[in-house]
Amino acid sequence: TGGTAPPTDRTNTDHHPTPADAAFVSLRGLAKSFHGQRVFEGIDLDVRAGTVTAVIGPSGGGKSTLLRCVNRLETPDAGTVTVGGVRYPADGPLDRARRTALNRTVGMVFQSFNLFPHLTAERNITLAQQRALKRPRAEAVQRSRELLDRVGLLERADAHPHTLSGGQQQRVAIARALALDPEVLLFDEPTSALDPELALDVLAVMRSLAAEGRTMIVVTHETRFAEEVSEQVVVMADGGIVEAGTPRAVLHDPAHPRARRFLASVR
Length: 267
Ligand code: ADP
Ligand code: MG
Prior knowledge:
About 35% of the residues lie in helices and about 25% in strands. The protein has helices spanning about 65-70, 95-105, 120-135, 135-150, 165-180, 195-210, 225-230, 245-250, 255-265; strands at about 25-35, 35-50, 50-55, 80-85, 85-90, 105-110, 185-190, 215-220, 230-235, 240-245. The chain is built from nine helices and ten strands. Helix 5 (about 165-180) runs parallel beside helix 6. Mean pLDDT is about 90; it is low at about 1-15. Helix 6 (about 195-210) links the parallel strand 7 (about 185-190) and strand 8. By secondary structure, it is an alpha/beta fold. Strands 6-7-8-3-9-10 form a six-stranded mixed beta sheet, sandwiched between helices. The protein has a four-stranded antiparallel beta sheet with strand order 2-1-4-5, covered by helices on one side. The structure holds adenosine-5'-diphosphate (ADP) and magnesium ion. Adenosine-5'-diphosphate (ADP) binds near residues 39, 62 and 63.
């Protein structure tokens, strides 16, 4: 496929429209090791468009690595990732058209916010749009302000990250991710670094995203949140998905001993 495609042109990839009821994100046989140490293998997962999948499990179980294989911050060793009808095989680096398509489709929110410390909240959000989407500055500023308003932080538009609480920084990071108009959002323990009270504001924003039918994969230990918003919950442990199903089944009646042990520890 041609490496000269402009950022918004997906015609050079094998893109097929996603039927309304089909999986928007599909993982098949996904495997990843570091230095010969298996993190996971044989991961199969389908995330339907407009639904939330919660990923839970013990520390070191490969949850972050799984998300990073979806947006290709890590290269899987085997398997395929299909997002929005575009197939991203594991073998080798992505060509430029697929890299661009993936970056345009998938947004990510990290545990540690990852805001630029020397930029204001608004500038953090605006810069991302100018760089990634080549959006004109005035339009980007307008969008930043709409999104800051949405996450309840319009009055802090000119604040630098260190003057904001952790919860406020994370809401800016969510606004920044939304500003790039992703079709699926990945959250990696977005509230784990926050005091419980500050986590509530972040979870409220995430609930509103779920309610408007966003496709989301959320790694979280907030089992109540997972129960409220997710269509399915998966438990990652021991190199794979040990349990998957409805929140009710997985959170209240897990079959696998490893899942049972983990759930007992977070309640
Ligand atoms: P979780 O998010 O469930 O806590 P991770 O995906 O962060 O788990 O880590 C899974 C395993 O992979 C851990 O043993 C971790 O040490 C290892 N790991 C993760 N990233 C790397 C890396 N870049 N290099 C080497 N090992 C890594
Ligand atoms: Mg992690």
